[in-house]
Q: What sequence folds into this?
């Protein structure tokens, strides 16, 4: 076989209605392919000597560049939120006495269901638990009305181990909000406070961080999700819901006992 091979190509060009011929000369020892035509000057096409495809270049989105530090150990933005918020989140314990002498018919019926007829007990202590958060260094605590409703005694437990008896200052069942007050001795450390934000500026998709006392046993627990929706109304809530509803919806894990605890943003604002 000759060193060079000649291949005659017959090309039909419809646009100009004539036939053109071309000869392609391939030298197996050279990376250059030579094409000759009667109508065009010789054109040399340099063949690629690399078989590795070139990786396309692209710009890194700003959001990835700004959050690149999240891939490094101990740089989660939620660490700072936890350090700022958890000390001001409290667990709330309470109880109420129910019996045949209770003012509420519901409480009397509850007593009859729980206490056997042949018992000599006349009252039964019903415990409750929930969460709350300190909003003022003077000892004011926000929680839900249904957490403390009807309780005869309320105790607030801080993350640092301190416990105080709490007084009910005010409650609004229509919005399910209640305010408690704890009195701290002068020689005790100052109370930590969690700041209030502005819910009008919340956007769907931003971080939603829940802190509380789930199941009444897991104090100072934090879960993370996003704000899934705004303005949720007319919801049917087990056990009854507030008359006025304008809820933020989140996919952060929330369990019984979280009631009264805050949902905060990445700034640690409620």
A:
């Amino acid at each position: 076989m000759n060193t060079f091979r000649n291949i005659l190509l017959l090309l039909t060009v419809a646009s100009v209605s004539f036939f053109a011929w071309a000869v392609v000369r391939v030298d197996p020892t050279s990376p250059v392919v030579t094409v000759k035509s009667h109508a065009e000057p010789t054109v040399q096409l340099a063949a690629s000597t690399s078989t590795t495809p070139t990786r396309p270049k692209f710009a890194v989105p700003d959001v990835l560049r700004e959050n690149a530090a999240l891939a490094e150990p101990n740089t989660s933005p939620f660490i700072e939120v936890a350090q700022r918020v958890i000390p001001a989140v409290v667990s709330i314990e309470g109880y109420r006495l129910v019996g045949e002498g209770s003012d509420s018919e519901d409480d009397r019926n509850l007593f009859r269901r729980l206490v056997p007829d042949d018992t000599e007990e006349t009252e039964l202590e019903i415990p409750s638990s929930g969460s709350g958060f300190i909003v003022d260094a003077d000892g004011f605590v926000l929680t839900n009305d249904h957490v403390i409703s009807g309780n005869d005694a309320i105790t607030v437990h801080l993350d640092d181990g301190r416990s105080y008896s709490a007084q009910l200052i005010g409650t609004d069942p229509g919005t399910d909000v209640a305010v408690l007050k704890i009195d701290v001795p002068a020689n005790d450390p100052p109370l930590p406070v969690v700041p209030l934000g502005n819910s009008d500026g919340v956007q769907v998709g931003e971080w939603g961080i829940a802190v509380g006392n789930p199941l009444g046993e897991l104090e100072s627990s934090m879960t993370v999700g996003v704000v899934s929706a705004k303005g949720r109304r007319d919801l049917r809530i087990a056990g009854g819901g507030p008359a006025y509803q304008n809820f933020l919806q989140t996919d952060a894990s929330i369990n019984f006992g979280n009631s009264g605890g805050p949902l905060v943003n990445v700034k640690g604002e409620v």
About this structure: The CA atoms of residues 200 and 219 lie 29 Å apart. Residues 1-15+76-97+124-269 form a domain with the Thrombin, subunit H fold (CATH 2.40.10.120). The chain is about 10% helix and 40% strand. The two ends are 85 Å apart (CA to CA).
